[in-house]
Specification:
six-stranded mixed β-sheet, Deoxyribonuclease I, Chain A, 12 strands, globular, alpha+beta, 8 helices, 24% strand
Length: 260
Amino acid sequence: MRVVSWNVNGLRSVHKKGFERWLTGARANVVGVQEVRARPEQLPEELRSHKRWRTHFVAAERPGYSGVGLFARDEPDDVETTLGLKEVDAEGRLQVARFGRLTIVNGYFPNGNGKNRDNSRIPFKLDFYQRLFERLEKARRDGERILVLGDFNTAHQDIDLARPKDNRETSGFRPEEREEFDRWIRAGWVDTFRHFHKGGGHYSWWTQRLDARARNIGWRLDYVLASHGAMPFVKRAAIHPEVFGSDHCPVSVDLDPKIR
């Protein structure tokens, strides 16, 4: 069983670049996408009502902004989309989908940059992290099988970006953002990619300037975190930089089907 996460940086845009062809070849059971940037009715019909996939989308109130979506081979038993705070829920950043005993949380975590790149959105970003943490904490402690996937908009450690010394004051690598990520790890969430891959040079986002992707000057912003109840079923984790179409690339985990 494969679960994939991809910030597509506009689903309509990536659709024109071969998203359906990629989706067919991804060998996935569930795909969570972030930064859809469209209301469901604005998406091509072949994406909204795909004959091989069950789909579910959450849009932001602001046009052309944020949004998340799920493509699943099987219909989820239930999907929740709110954290209970209007300002957060208005941005369409969350899907909590249950597939039998497995819960998949698809999140587009906020960027801490303000309009003037002044880090003014960091408090909002941390509030999202903290509210989601609390939303999942009892289930995690109870041993439920949970995967939290998506664009976390944070590089956790120095190894997770190419130029850590140059970015210590940049949102995405600020101490308070990294500390919040640390809190999740200390609580028992497992960074699945780091569990299997200890070395550096693995990134999932590259700026579209200065030929950064070809030079592999990137950040690892996209993760799949597993609860201790889910981790025994995680067999592999991967980043897929060979997949183009967005400034991010997909990340994935392969699971024992018994997780469900």
